[in-house]
Batch of 4 targets.
Target 1
Amino acid sequence: MTEAAAAEELLTVLDRIVDRAEPGEGLEAFGIDETDTSVKAYDGDVESLSSARTRGVGIRLVSDERVGYAYTADLSEEALAEALEEARANARFATPDEANVLPGGSELGALEGLYDPAFEAVGVERKVELAVALEQATRSAAPEIKGVDSAQYGDGVRTAAIASTTGVRGAYRRADAWLAVEALAQAGGVTTAAYGLDIAKLPDLLDVEAAAREAATRAVRLLGGRKPASAKVPVVLDPFATASLLEVLGAALTADSVQRGRSMFAGRVGDAIAAGDVTLVDDGRRVDGLAAAPWDGEGVATGRTVLVEDGVLRRFMHNAYTAAKDRVASTGNASRAGFKSPPGVSPTNLFLEPGDEPADAILRRAGTGFYCQQIMGVHSGANPISGDFSVGAAGLMIRDGELAEPVREASIASTIPDLLTGIAAVGSDLRFLPVGGATGGTTLLLDAMTLSGA
Amino acid sequence: MVPLVGSRAVEPLALDDDDVRAVLVEALRSGGDFAEIYAETRRGRSLRLDDRKVEDLSSGLDRGAGVRVLRGQQSAYAYTNVLTRASLLDAAKVAAAGVSGSASVRVADLTTVQPPFTHPAARDPLAADRGVLVDIVRAAEEAARAVDGAVRQATITYADVRQEVFLANSEGHRSTEERVRTRLVAHVVAARDGVIQTGFEGPGGCVGHELFDDHPPEQVGRRAGQQAVTMLAAAFAPSGEFTVVLAPGGGGVLFHEACGHGMEADIVAKGASVYQGRQGERIGTPIFTGVDDATVPGGWGSYGFDDEGVAAQRTVLFEDGVCTDYLSDRLRAAGLGIHDSGNGRRQSYANLPIPRMSNSYVLPGQDDPAEILRSVPRGIYCKGLGGGQVDPASGDFVFGMTEAYLIENGAVTQPIRGANLVGDGPTAISRIDALGTDFETRQGICGKDGQGVPVAFGTPTLRITKITVGGTA
């Protein structure tokens, strides 16, 4: 289906719902229509191939300051009518809140570079080729690679559309392709594993060799790891580990977390919370990030939001509800987990403004320390409410500014405030990773943290 | 069969035998050796009470069907949420094109099979009025706030779902199974003197509102509140190696992550498991027996058939410390030449089945729980672990302790915060030297390969002689 036709078909369905609003009701219909393909390769052949089309509509209804939500994957007239009734019934039991408003008024613009029509000319044979090539390239990347846990080509072509009684109406399409591989390295009866990734706007722009090399290098260098001696040392996070950390920070910097009392950053706007040259940005219009879109999950234009500027907390991320509560403008951070959930608040493409130094210069700057290439247990170990930070880690020691012996079963600990004020350098190697949506990874140098082992 | 959702009939998956046969025949056209249709309808409701406000009341219908074709160890899958004969035939064509073989398998005559276990909901949650759901979350919230003035926030989430699964395959299996699940989750935040702590309680089951007979909403809220308030007095945890006693239920997630995942046949088949090739080897201590049991009546991870139509089973993973059976699905059982343990599960019609745990339990032992603690001169008593993470290849794991205390001279004393348990599965089970006669379960959603499925964990009081605690002090 052409871009315009898919969008029109979905918008027609949404218009029919919005037309049924009763006087005094605010009604918003959000729809998605997406096609996903996944190919996994194993032993030089296709292990699994999956192809799917998913459609669904979610309805948000506001009446007397009460909100109800309902969804359906069945787009028949009868099912849509039932979903609308469900939304109405749900609203009747909700607590009224004057911040329950549907955004509206402004024209929904476009964002170039999200979708390349050439995408749909790529046949499944080419996708299979890429998955098989990824598996083969990973296996042959290093003699220590004894296996591949999963080698996957994936893509998604998604049309999102929205219409409301407040005048929101629009649709956009985006397409992405990715490679993901987990390499298994073996030596002395011990197996280590690590990921390699690449993301592109067209299948042919994916770099098979780079993803394979990344997985292999990261797995092999962990071989022979031992528990480190417990010590306080500088820590360098690799881009994957940094992305995991930003995911936790991002959640704590949404106005939703702040208003619900679930963020240690509540009441801290205007305060220095990080080292003086640290700038943290959320940018929903960076098309190299997987979360780019012209408008957010409720039809507000996305934008660039500077959350932390030169170490000072400037603002939080908002959707229309949290913005109305704080009497500010939405930052275009309404998020949708799909058609089945009402809009929440989430970061889009969240990243630290990159610095000037590449990763090797940052290692030299650290001198002696711990290079963390994998954070484990970040969701329980990094607590954005209490600020406690204690996570499992795997990586390598840094000696004389270079990577030295590998480390496993280690733990690094600090507190989130100490960690942020201890950021000593942000690498120049920014790259968006599919961690917690689309978080930017960079090499990151942190002042002393507690490294524990045996 | 409960025919009502509120006052509305559940629509049958409108596939007659002729449709099913036609789709299966189409799916096998390019030489696959097995074909299957998995169709699903899910109706669910959820709501949240936060900061005394009822919000996010949501309800809906999700439905779809997938056609899977297997050829040897290859799978091809196509799904759609347009449930018409034509649309399923299209899906069958796409799936068929994903394999190429020479098998000329015929579609056997379809025979309806009843699930060997049922987990019927005694009190249909979807028949409850919305006002009842609001009362449930309010009761939990009030109990949480009543614990102590330090409780600042209580968020209570209620969710129910009725899932109807239709399965038919080229071997002639045809079945329908209904699964009803209900869960109530309380998150509580307490604050005092600049310290903020959280508490959590989240019981659920493959049950209806009888869930609240065993877990009254007040108790759910109160327990989460007590945990948050207790942890306000916590000191930073020490680092180093300690004897750790895990409270009943509290150690379940550790066993699930550090032992269970490595016993899943897909991970084993790829050489990514630390337990691979070790069947018959004694890895744990002789008192350690671990099982996965999908037949537990009303268990959060229970089912009648797995998502491939194989009967739910109880599988012994470790018997008296010896590594025994793996958890498999159809494909991996065939690939490894082992028995299909009925653990092929999927998040929804949008996913291929993969080997998953259901309810994974460490069985109780012979020791008096109080005596297990009394015999520890210095150690850690852990009542709750947060979401952990494990690398199945090495068995290395990390778990945050959400509620933990020091043990001094056999007594539980100072609460401690901000600490992890760090170790590896085989070593941890080789150091279990005491198992209590008590037993409790916990519930969660386990994520693997992008698919979340409900799982339960259960353990008695359990002592590990030595494990690394990554603390902050």
Note: Chain A has ten helices and 20 strands.
Target 2
Amino acid sequence: MKQMIKSKKGYKTIVTIFSLLFIAIAFVFFSYLFKNIGKDDVAVASQFKSIDTEYALRTFLASPSGIEPEELKVYVGDHMSNAQIAARTCTEQNTREYETLKENARIYFNKLYGDNNWRLELIYVKNSETNPEITGDSVGELDIDSALDIYESYEKFRTLTDDSELSRKRVLYALNIRGSRLGMQILPCNNDNSIVKLVLVNNLGEKEVAVITVGSA
Amino acid sequence: MNRFNLFSGRRKKGQVEEMVEQIPYIILTILVIFGIYALLNYATNPQIKVANVQANVFVYRTLYSPHSISQFDNNTGRVYPGIIIDEKFTSQTLDESMQYSYEKQISAKLEIYLEGSSEPVRTAYYNKEWYDKLRPVANSRFSGAGSAQILSKQVPIVYRQPGADFPAVMNFTIVIPE
């Protein structure tokens, strides 16, 4: 090697070899770079995760709850779905319906997304038109802030309030975000003029095109 | 005779050696030109494979179309995607619910599996004729013009039979020609 470097020809040969190697490495590097950029763009356009999440929530609500209508001693039709149960949990939470709803959600979404990859927020709102009174609960272990941090509106609203559970629910009630990893449904309650808003967040997938609108609560 | 006049007349030994020395540089130049062309071509003319998009759009059209297999309320005009009606789950309903610009564009097999069951309880086809023709082609794993791709997607559903709802999974096996 030392002899090659000393001679002019040898030096040129070494330079040529290293140039070829450099070109090859540069080519591989740029190819990888371009390929990855392209792959991300295609992935964003092809996955439709916002639709998937909302579909999952809607299908869960339409699923049979396991509670027979006769057990409730009031007529609720032939089928008792999770949506019907959710609509019956607005005024009282220490009921069999409420526990069944939470247990059904646990079984359904654990199967779909895996443990710790989802969270279902139940937000109960009384007097929704003027001075809304908000309460609620949640099922699932996912840290909802980390999943919602990608939404600018959520961040903006959250900084205006404190970090308590209740203020988070106020923000989730006020915002109507449609986007990747997020699905929302609003149901009228069974007994009074309240509504229940269900917000499903999952931890799968990257940011997708999000249409964000802000509610008027 | 100077060094740029290598290809005319008789050459001396030194001149031949000089020409041989140029070969690596010529190869290098060709490689660089080829590399730049390849990178520019790759970056500016990306061939985006749309099969995944086509498959997803097909799934959502099937689930959200008012005259497809999902429950549809005639009074409100509202579709309940994910609630699959037993009597509507037929190949005929699927074929009539969606029209593509040409017949060969997409074909699919839809299977409903009840929770905990490994055998499908119902099966229906969209564009069965082309599904049967293209499925063997897709299975051959050849790529390029004339070949086909198989894509599959599972979605949770509520399978509604008269008087009873069942939690189930619907499996889409979609065949898309290249």
Note: The CA atoms of residues 112 and 155 of chain B lie 10 Å apart.
Target 3
Amino acid sequence: MAAADAAPELLVVRLGVVEYRAALALQEAVRERRIAGELPDVLLLVEHPPVYTRGRRSQDGDLPFEPEWYAEQGIDVVPVRRGGQLTYHGPGQLVGYPIMRIADVIAYLRAMEGSLIAALDDEGLAARNRPDDGIEYTGVWVDERKIASIGVHVSHNVTTHGFAVNVDNDMRPFEWAVACGLHGVRMTSLADERGETARTRPPAHEPLAREREASPLVAQLADRVVARFAEAFRRTPVEAEPTTLGVPLPDAARSGQPVGRS
Amino acid sequence: MPAETSSTTDVVMPQLGVSVVEGTILRWLVAVGEAVAADQPLCEIDTDKIVTDIPSPAGGVLAEIVVDEGSTVSVGAVLARVSSAGQAGLRAGPVAARGDSATCVAESSSPAPPARSASPSSWHSPVVQRIAAEHGVDLAGVAGTGRGGRVRKQDVLAVVAAQGNGGERPLHSESPYRPEPPAEAAGSGQLSHMRRAIGAHMKRSLETAATCTTWMEVDMSRVEAARRRAKASALLGVTALPIVAHCAIEALAEHPALNATLEGERYARYDAVHLGVAVSLGEDGLIVPVIRDAQQLSVEQLGLAIRDLARRARGGQLQPDEVRGGTFTITNPGQFGSLMATPVINQPQVAILDLEAIVKRPIVVPDDHGDDVIAIRPQTILGLSWDHRALDGAQAAQFLGALRRRLESWDGRG
């Protein structure tokens, strides 16, 4: 505050495991305050319990097995008001929701991709983005495999939604989301690329249960992403408690284990 | 011309970046006739990875929505028109029925509006113009169902459809060739999700792999004899598939380069054989359930596993884990009598074995004295499609040779 020329603040709030729907409501509340100028730019970091989100272009066949089967696995299915395909979120995946005032949405996407590439590089993994391949290739890739998905919503020049990096998540739900294991894009994760079995993957005989021990690898990458994200957007990261946001918080966000630095 | 004219401002689909060429209207946030402030979001557009609102370029009243929800338009297309504020007549806009409000604006406040909106039906969106140009449709003759009689995309498409094949142009203007009229379809409709998924998977394989196919003829006398014995004792299934699978698994142990996956530049060989077996679901398509650790199974166990998977596949009872993680695949069109078919590699695997029909043929064999004689033998042709990025023809042929040796010397063990 004293130094007028210091980089603007980026409030970093680590919320732990938050249900997808609750995180959506939280983002919208924070966006209201950001639009009103009551908050600086914010980066929310969460993990979601297993969930498929389906956009308007998702089709019934995208989830080829019986609904009961997904329910048995403990995977929620949430319709969302956006275009695009079906996606999966789950424990071991680092999800970031930047709520920022921006001027140029494409520049914003590229900077976000760049920060994730730098964070993965810090972990020794060479990743890339594909700006020349078309907007549908937005995201972060390792060769032809997709490691991070990006999708943003801009309203009144303020963003919601953001990125999801597969760090240490059980990758099988991606395979369960299209008929007979066929799909156009192969997903990968940091653990997959290292040839490790995801720490969050349950034994074969158990369903994809909701309660899972947090992966230290997610916390580690979260720290790197915060540093690289702030760097890419020339912000000073300020770690803050969820209550700082001044919005109603979901229960899990109050009691949940924070992502990363605790 | 009266001095007071209403000025309208076009709301256009913005250019978000060079790679974004079109967007879809997700929803309208403001109804026609409602007052809007400058920069107030009018609608949301979706460009696959980005959902963004479109702010009003001026304060006033939303006079017209040109592009409906769910429609996809190119960058620069006019999405809506906003009449500028200060027009007394426009203030009454919200009272007017929505469908009539565009007309209401024109009548009440703009006796001499800009040429474009003088007759709403004379202006056509870029999409409509493109379709009309492609199909040679005269838009003046198309009855519009949009606001104020505007010709919408579906109107021009309906005209194109009504033209039928009479409107089809020859492939080349100087060519005498005219496309044949399509045969009367017995049934038509959208491809099923599974058909589209199979199509995408196969296309991707052919575009990804350097696919080659190697053929080898095999004398199946000993296998057929074993099958006859087995049928008598009801131990085995009636096809040669489990025996071929068993021998193929043994041959893979000798030639592990084929029991592998290749993703990008990442090539991985496996000790265990997770054997995919293509199962036809009839018209519904095809599925490839996987027998895990197939190298641990006897011929009888393989036969039972194949039968069980096929039965459950056709009953739609497979678990997701049973259709993934294969390292090598066998397909068996021979059961329907086919002699040769080039299989498509099941990505990211590097080879697929094709078992064809077993047919009696006259072939030359040595007799007991080592002399050549012609004998009647059950013969088959084994086909192996393999990825030239991962291996070479010699390895493919050596693998088939190893498989042939095992089949031709099959002694009925399980």
Note: Strands of chain A lie at 9-17, 41-47, 51-54, 76-79, 87-89, 93-99, 140-142, 145-155, 158-166, 236-240.
Target 4
Amino acid sequence: VTAPATGARPADKLHDIQSITDTALARLGDHDLLTELLERTRAILQADTAAAMLLDSSSGELIATAAAGLEEEVRQGVRIPVGRGFAGRIAATRQPVTLEHADHTTALNPILLQKGIRALMGVPLIAGRKVLGVLYVGSLTDRKFTSDDLELLLLAADRAASAVLSLMTREDRLAATALQRSLLPSPLSAAGGAELAARYVPGEGVVGGDWYDVFTLPSGQLCVVIGDVMGSGLPAAVIMGRMRSALRAYALETTDPAEVLARLDAKMQHFEPGALATVLYAVFEPGLSQAHICSAGHYPPVLALPRRPARLAGIPPGLLIGAAPGAQRRVANLDIAPGSLLCFFTDGLIERRAHSIDEGMARLCRAVTARPPDAAIATVMAALVGSETADDDIAVLMLRRPP
Amino acid sequence: MTVDGHRVRWVGQQAVIAMPAEIDVTNADPIGQALVIAASQDTPVLIIDMSGTTFCDSAGVRAIITAHQHAATTGTRLLLVAAPVLRMLTLTGVDQLIPIYPTLAAALAGAPGPGG
């Protein structure tokens, strides 16, 4: 059976367009909207399947995400590299593609070929200047798609793109948030006899690559890490997770903080080329009387002694992680008097467009006092963040040597 | 000439690219691209002029590092001029990669030509 051409009569065509642009669709959630839109598109175009493949930017592949008709490709998680095959070509060229005789030379999707798909028509899903994926319909019978068919598919793609964008943005945000939460040590125990408190605040609702970590070594030394992977969202959170694990592994191999950061740097440059991060790593002697601290492009901590104004600890600046091979970094040995407090932080805490970095650091020093960390951190967050929503994410960790 | 809207001018063998007053996540990507284009094989010395830059966050640092990594492949020597945002560049160790001068005049005088 050869499917008849659609949209033959103007009244039908209008009805078809209304079916796609139906405002009632907006009341559905993004995922349901996509599924319903695919079902309507499939029905209007009298196709055997309608499907959406979404671009996974980290792998550069299109992943079958929703389908009406041949749902197997979604269940089996079919992946097609951008630039290859029918769907890959649409995503790469941002142009519609119509195949009248689909076979293994023109289409890669094994499920479509197994099921005997003969004709395919697909269009890119575009939001702004960004390709989000591909929307296509397929027919099990020979079929010539008309310009009216293409027009309808483009309309459906337009409608789907906004739903897909909000779906992808939300999924990325949820995944990044979940990842952040799973990686930040919580609750902070009184590790190594230190009193600890920490905060993590995502900026503008966007989770980034800030992290802190606290752990003890078999030697009884206590280690504190604070870092910031440049970039935001899921990609930064993923790299952060890898850096955190790698640093812990190197911490077991050597107690020299500069060597730990050098190994981390070499690992990042090899496995995550293009990633940049600032990291501060501190190793405290048992009893917390001294800390050995090394910075890879990160702000030094603020040091507050009891009843004394707080100041930035003198840590020699070292090159950030990922910038260039073979960077040499120096270690500062810091004496920690009983009752002293160290405040580790990321740039989001002090950087404000209206003020210089020096002003931000001065504000922070004024707010930090050598009190129990729970109270001290509340004061700092109130003074530096208050009720404003930060643009950037913020991580703060405070450690006090008991008086 | 301009590269992506950023003015590049030549002083002898040295190209000078002027940076905007503020560099952050909203404009760092095009700035990074402009720096990469400017640091081509035909540019022996590129001076990144941040003397008018009063705000530069980590996104700006990232753009500069990316330009440095690219310049290493084309053989372009990078120099920086920075005053208000010097602190950010020393803190992140950028000054250990790229020489930083307080003024454009100092950079022009201090930058030897190719092979120098």
Note: The longest helix of chain B spans residues 58-74.
